[in-house]
């Protein structure tokens, strides 16, 4: 094992070498001590009572408790308000190092203390009365600005300009702030907003434009209708209802009724049967099998019987013959078709005509449907218009005892959807959160407490319901 | 070099449309704000021709918007306003949760208002455009005017709706623009004509608020619509008042100032205040003349000189002229059980004067004891104290009179009478080739007399099951009634348009004289025109003209003619059936009468 000897002499030629090999620990210690002294003050300059405490109590057991009432929680909090918060303590100066620049100007925050000059000027202003004036002016300005704001809010309620007139500045697109007399027309024109002319708006959808907002009412919805018209309306309602029923029946048939229904008992039986397949020996099914007493596999072996040459040849010949006959038939048909040309022509043309007429019919039907079709703007469908019908027993025939049956707001809302001005949507209701409440058990809880609590909970539930 | 490959859906239908989500991202708005701005600016979702392509290959149904529409929205200065609002909302929310209510108040005070005047102008470049789109606006405003303050509706909205609707009704009263009314189970349908545009709207019954269930209607959306419509209606009102030489805003009763909002918490008080406001006459602009009467219609030379059409238009104009002054000079008193709102509006619209019970409601102009009242509108079977100087009619008479454009005979509308059905004035006039039973025809057209009316047969049929003893008295009363009706009609004719009628009679006489002069046979001319011959010639000419119909339209023409013929046949058949039935009933009745007479004779003997 080779122990490296410490070198007696080392080169301290370079700065790094010097640093590496010279011992400066004592210097650093000294400096550290000095810094500490600077910070905390010299040890020997400190007074005795700063360093020592006179022990008046001694080591005796008896402890005189000071007769101070403990602070309440609130008082403690109050007391803490005056303290500097813990988080700010780090920002406070802890150093005892004196300010190197002792003549530093202390800059007071503005308004903390009046200067001599400001005192003089203030005095002069008060004597002049200019201060009073200024205060009044400020108050007045504030009032004006407040009122202007108020007025600008009321603008919405007062309609005081002819929007369709020619001479109105606002109409020309000049911003409101420039619509005053003393602003030159050049300045106004320069500031015309470009909003309206930037892009042409594409025309609104056809459904919005074409469909009327208020449909003409069926004469049967009169509060005092004629018998005939009322019956017609009733027929409409019946048709509508039948359509809906048919739809519902269809949906029922296609969904619920598509699946077989099994009673609970039979389901259980089935389950038992399925689950106990391997347990019981399968019962013999045929009596003849039992009598035979011989083992028979479920799938008896099949023998691969090869065809001989003759059979193969015959098969080939048969296929060829069949093909030949087919060809012959086609060739014959070609010849006969030449004579049938006119007939074929007519049949083709009649078919074309038929198809044409069918297509026309389909198209016209499609167009008619598109006129009243509900726009598909969303995954939800707009509600179909339901005829508003009042059953005859509710029709009193006089205005006094008329009761409105339809919700007009809903009618409007749905009409907007039917016209395509709004995408149909289902109004999602906010669900009330279900908050479970518990009673925290403790050693002091009595049965009465629990009862009282439960009563409160029940009350709340009732109110929310 | 190979050119860069074109990305799919970067042109064509895929680029034309934009999903709502993409639009939100592009505009940097929340869904709530986007909905609002779309409604205000009139941007609607679109239905593409090929959904798959428009959705860039994505399945399902998404809400799509035109990219152009969204780009158009991008330049709207209101978007910046909306973003400003968002900041305010955040501040308010924070202040509320920190319980700094002073700050909340301050924020609410400084809350920026959105001014949408320029949008109204942009969406409706001309006044007529605005009028054309007023249907929805009016219906919603009338509806919202019945609402109390709701959770999702701004507080001032329903108040403003009330004021604006009343102002609009006043404009209609002055312009005499109402043409049709219809009382349905839903509400009152009104149709007015302003500047050649027909405007239809619905006013709900009673002005009472029905509680709305939350899951049916999105209140926020509807209130945004109303926000736009209010601004629009305000400016329409301003323009209307200007053109009618009225002062805008009108000074209405105290209930329509925002200061007294609190005073009118009571629904009933509000309604009566509203009706009272309608009974005021408005201040005219100083120095303006009365709105001059519309001059006689001029006939211009146009391309299609169909004398029938011109005649029809002239007739219509004349009827409207009569309608405008239908109730002029008449005084109405409305009993307290009658819904006053529509009646006051309608009667004032056609120049009548209205009043009601002074003790029950505000704004009455004259008392019930006033002898100059011509009609009292009653909706109860009987009354203790009746004045001889006035007619007691049921409210439907007013509406039916307006729809038929004449003062109807009141005998069917008297107090306690079973009312005739209230017919809809909104009928399709193109479907006139249908059979109408004589009773209904008499209702539609007061001049029409059912066949066999002279013998009182039409009424007799209804009472066929009645006992015979009452019949005679019945007949007498009916004849009395008829006499009354005739008298009444004559009276009304004298009252309302006596001068017009005289002129017409004079003209007729003149015409007949001239015709007689022309018909005088001069000596030496032997040619005589057979009317029958002429008819035949006319028919031949017509057939010749029919032949001139182009081949393209011939089939259509033929089918049209055939349809007309068939409908005529049907009507004829039904009329014949009805006639035969009537005759049969009549004969049976006669036979029964004779039989009873004979029995009575036998008994007497």
Automatic annotation (TrEMBL), chain A:
Residues 304-315 have a biased composition (Basic residues). Coiled coil: none annotated. GO terms for molecular function: 5S rRNA binding. It is found in: Nucleus, Nucleolus; Nucleus, Nucleoplasm. Its main location: nucleus. Keywords: Nucleus, Ribosome biogenesis. Residues 350-369 have a biased composition (Basic and acidic residues). GO terms for cellular component: nucleolus; nucleoplasm. Residues 55-80, 277-316, 350-371 are annotated as: Disordered. GO terms for biological process: ribosomal large subunit assembly; rRNA processing. May play a role in ribosome biogenesis. Belongs to the NOP53 family. This is Ribosome biogenesis protein NOP53.
Automatic annotation (TrEMBL), chain B:
GO terms for molecular function: ribonucleoprotein complex binding; RNA binding. Belongs to the pescadillo family. It comes from the Eukaryota. Keywords: Nucleus, Ribosome biogenesis, rRNA processing. Residues 438-538, 582-605 are annotated as: Disordered. Residues 322-415 form the BRCT domain. This is Pescadillo homolog. Residues 442-452, 526-538, 582-598 have a biased composition (Basic and acidic residues).
């Amino acid at each position: 094992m080779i122990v490296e000897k410490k070198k007696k002499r080392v080169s301290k030629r370079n700065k790094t070498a010097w640093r590496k090999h010279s011992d400066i620990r004592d210097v650093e210690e000294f400096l550290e001590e000095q810094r500490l002294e600077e910070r905390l003050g010299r040890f020997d300059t400190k007074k005795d009572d700063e360093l020592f405490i006179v022990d008046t109590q001694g080591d005796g057991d008896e402890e005189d408790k000071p007769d101070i009432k403990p602070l309440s929680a609130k008082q403690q909090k109050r007391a803490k308000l005056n303290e500097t918060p813990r988080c700010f303590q780090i920002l406070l100066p802890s150093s005892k190092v004196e300010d190197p620049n002792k003549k530093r100007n202390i800059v007071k925050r503005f308004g903390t203390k009046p200067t001599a000059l400001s005192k003089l000027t203030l005095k002069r202003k008060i004597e002049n009365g200019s201060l009073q004036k200024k205060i009044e002016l400020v108050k007045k300005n504030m009032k004006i600005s407040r009122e202007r704001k108020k007025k600008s809010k009321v603008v919405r309620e007062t309609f005081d300009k002819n929007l369709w007139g020619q001479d109105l500045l606002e109409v020309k697109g000049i911003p409101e702030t420039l619509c005053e007399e003393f602003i030159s027309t050049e300045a106004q024109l320069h500031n015309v907003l470009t909003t309206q002319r930037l892009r042409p708006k594409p025309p609104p959808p056809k459904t919005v434009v074409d469909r009327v907002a208020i449909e003409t009412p069926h004469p049967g919805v009169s509060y005092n209708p004629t018998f005939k018209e009322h019956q017609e309306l009733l027929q409409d309602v019946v048709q509508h209802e039948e359509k809906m029923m048919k739809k519902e029946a269809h949906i029922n048939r296609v969904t619920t009724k598509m699946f077989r229904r099994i009673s609970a008992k039979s389901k259980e039986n089935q389950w038992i049967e399925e689950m106990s397949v391997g347990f019981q020996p399968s019962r013999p099914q045929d009596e003849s099998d039992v009598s035979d007493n011989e083992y028979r596999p479920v799938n008896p072996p099949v023998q691969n019987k090869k065809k001989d040459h003759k059979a193969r040849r015959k098969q080939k010949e048969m296929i060829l013959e069949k093909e030949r006959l087919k060809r012959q038939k086609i060739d014959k048909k070609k010849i006969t078709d030449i004579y049938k040309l006119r007939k074929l022509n007519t049949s083709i043309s009649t078919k074309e005509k038929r198809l044409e007429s069918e297509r026309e019919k389909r198209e016209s039907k499609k167009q008619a449907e598109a006129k009243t079709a509900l726009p598909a703007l969303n995954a939800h469908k707009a509600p179909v218009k339901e005829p508003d019908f009042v059953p005859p027993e509710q029709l009193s025939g006089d205005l006094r005892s008329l009761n409105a049956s339809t919700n007009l707001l809903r009618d409007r809302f749905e009409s907007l959807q039917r016209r395509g001005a709004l995408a149909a949507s289902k109004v999602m209701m906010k669900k009330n959160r279900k908050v479970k409440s518990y009673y925290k058990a403790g050693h002091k809880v009595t049965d009465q407490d629990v009862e009282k609590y439960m009563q409160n909970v029940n009350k709340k539930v009732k109110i929310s319901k | 070099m190979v050119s860069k490959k074109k990305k799919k859906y970067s042109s064509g239908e895929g680029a034309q449309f934009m999903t709502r989500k993409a639009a939100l991202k592009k505009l940097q708005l929340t869904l709530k704000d986007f909905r609002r701005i779309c409604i205000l600016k009139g941007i609607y979702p679109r239905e593409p021709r090929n959904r798959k392509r428009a959705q860039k290959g994505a399945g399902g149904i998404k809400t799509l918007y035109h990219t152009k529409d969204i780009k158009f929205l991008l330049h709207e200065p209101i978007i910046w306003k909306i973003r400003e609002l968002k900041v305010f909302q955040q501040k308010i929310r924070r202040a509320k949760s920190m319980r700094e209510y002073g700050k909340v108040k301050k924020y609410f005070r400084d809350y920026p208002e959105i001014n949408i005047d320029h949008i109204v102008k942009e969406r409706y470049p001309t006044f007529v455009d605005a009028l054309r789109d007023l249907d929805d606006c009016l219906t919603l405003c009338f509806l919202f005017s019945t609402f109390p303050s709701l959770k999702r509706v701004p507080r001032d909205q329903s108040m403003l709706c009330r004021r604006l609707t009343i102002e609009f009704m006043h404009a209609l009263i002055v312009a005499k623009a109402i043409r049709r009314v219809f009382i349905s189970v839903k509400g009152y349908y009104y149709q007015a004509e302003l500047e050649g545009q027909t405007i239809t709207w619905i006013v709900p019954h009673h002005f009472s608020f029905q509680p709305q269930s939350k899951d049916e209607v999105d209140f926020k959306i509807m209130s945004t619509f109303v926000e736009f419509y209010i601004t629009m209606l305000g400016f329409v009102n301003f323009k209307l008042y200007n053109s009618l030489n009225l002062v805008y805003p009108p000074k209405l009763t105290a209930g329509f100032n925002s200061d007294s909002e609190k005073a009118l918490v009571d629904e009933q008080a509000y309604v009566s205040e509203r009706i009272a406001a309608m009974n005021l006459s408005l201040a005219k602009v100083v120095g303006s003349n009365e709105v001059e009467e519309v001059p006689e219609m001029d006939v211009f030379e146009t391309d299609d000189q169909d004398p029938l059409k011109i005649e029809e238009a002239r007739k219509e104009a004349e009827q409207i002229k009569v309608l405008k002054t239908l109730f002029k000079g008449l005084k109405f008193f409305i009993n307290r059980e009658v819904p006053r709102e529509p009646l006051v509006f309608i009667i004032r619209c056609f120049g009548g004067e209205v009043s009601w019970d002074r003790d029950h409601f505000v704004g009455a102009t004259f008392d019930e004891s006033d002898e100059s009242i011509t009609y009292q509108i009653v909706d109860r079977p009987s009354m203790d104290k009746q004045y001889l100087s006035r007619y007691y009619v049921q409210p439907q008479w007013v509406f039916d009179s307006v729809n038929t454009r004449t003062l109807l005979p009141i005998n069917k509308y008297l107090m306690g009478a079973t009312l005739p059905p209230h017919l809809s004035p909104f009928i399709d006039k193109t479907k006139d080739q249908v059979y109408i039973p004589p009773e209904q025809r008499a209702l539609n057209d007061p001049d029409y007399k059912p066949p066999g009316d002279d013998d009182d047969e039409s009424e007799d049929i209804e009472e066929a099951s009645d006992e015979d003893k009452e019949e005679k008295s019945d007949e007498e009363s009916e004849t009395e009634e008829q006499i009354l009706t005739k008298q009444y009609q004559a009276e009304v004719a004298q009252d309302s348009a006596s001068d017009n009628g005289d002129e017409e009679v004079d003209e007729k006489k003149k015409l007949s004289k001239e015709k007689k002069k022309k018909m005088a046979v001069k000596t030496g001319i032997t040619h005589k025109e057979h009317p029958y011959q002429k008819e035949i010639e006319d028919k031949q000419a017509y057939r010749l003209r029919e032949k001139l119909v182009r081949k393209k339209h011939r089939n259509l023409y033929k089918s049209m003619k055939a349809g007309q013929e068939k409908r005529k046949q049907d009507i004829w058949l039904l009329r014949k059936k009805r006639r035969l039935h009537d005759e049969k009933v009549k004969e049976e009745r006669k036979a029964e009468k004779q039989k009873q007479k004979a029995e009575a004779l036998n008994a007497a003997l």
